[in-house]
């Protein structure tokens, strides 16, 4: 295996950008209690510090994916880095919770650009037999960010304040911007007679997501369910418009005619729906119930992403040799067992047991993620890499939104309009337990889609 200097730099830039996004996400999770104190936020509003970022990312991933196919993925990638870095810097200067949530939304737009363009750039720059390997390395960058984020975020929050997290992220972003503009040139895009996309359906898609997430934050108020119902209707309208459009943002036929593509994306949606809120819930649990300072809580939470970072490249490489569905099924099963175990958390749960479960879930997620991404990118031809990457990223972020929505739902219905700091331990643990029970049930559904997706057709099948 001999890679050129350009290929190595491309892989480095995409991996660093992957690290940058997840580093900020995981470190902010640790800083949530301090952010809550700074602005006097309640539990529901506090969750929007995370959710606003995810909502914006989900809203823009699909159109950005198609823009990448038409305008060039490297151009979209560089635009995303600039937006993300600028908004990260501004987050460090906010003076209200509303301003922070708004800037986090803008950050999400930048993340949509880099998340969509990154995998598409990689699979276009390397030989097909190296897809799983390079995607595994990129995914490893994601998990290194998740691993380093809680530790660094806890340290920064405890000794320099939560704002230093955003300044650190901006510094990494500035370095990445310079490297990207030096080594990523604007790609040559084949121009077609018709390059105009129909974004009429995308408007309904965006409004639907906003309605779903906003409605979930209004629970237990009666009109919350009506708002969420409107969201579902808008998403159905989006699907109908896209299926009839001559130039759609998303090709619905990939879901109705390509089982490998459809089941792999559904498996990703389910996996992230079940696992994303783990860090959110455990960060609050460790600091409130276990009385850990942010730094110590961050060290505990490192266990899961460290396993993901170590084993994702290995799983990706294995998926180049063996059918990915076997690896993803084992991984999804391990995640389900781990989530079920978290449902038994209590005041007396030893820390070493929490770490052991995090290690187990981290290994399961590593076995799932890289092979699943390899399957998605291998199920379409080269002209649809941007779309496939954008769709896969959309499934990831939609899953993350679902995960946070489920957590917010139980916080809203059980804890109510009270700050985490003031709620009783018994009530808080009840909300956390119901969250993990729901996630275990959701994860169990993914086992079916992981195994029954079908096989990748290639010459070296075993």
Notes on the protein architecture:
By secondary structure, the protein is mainly alpha-helical. The protein has 2 domains: 5-185 and 249-451, Up-down Bundle (Growth Hormone, Chain: A), CATH 1.20.1250; 200-248, no CATH class. 80% of the residues lie in helices and 0% in strands. The chain has helices spanning 5-39, 43-71, 73-91, 97-125, 131-160, 163-183, 200-218, 223-244, 253-257, 259-275, 277-288, 294-301, 303-321, 324-342, 351-378, 385-415, 425-451. The longest helix has 35 residues, at 5-39. The two termini are 21 Å apart.
Low-confidence stretches: 191-195
How large is the radius of gyration? 21 Å
- Count of helix runs: 17
The assigned CATH architecture of the largest domain is Up-down Bundle
Order of helices and strands: HHHHHHHHHHHHHHHHH
Helicity level: over 70%
Shape estimate: globular
User: What share of residues are in beta strands?
Assistant: under 5%
Strand elements, count:
0
Quick recap:
Helices cover 80% and strands 0% of the residues. Helix 2 packs parallel to helix 4 (97-125), helix 5 packs antiparallel against helix 15 and helix 14 (324-342) runs antiparallel to helix 17. It has 462 residues and is an all-alpha fold.
Tag the structure with descriptive keywords.
Growth Hormone, Chain: A; 462 residues; mainly alpha; single chain; 2 domains; globular; 17 helices
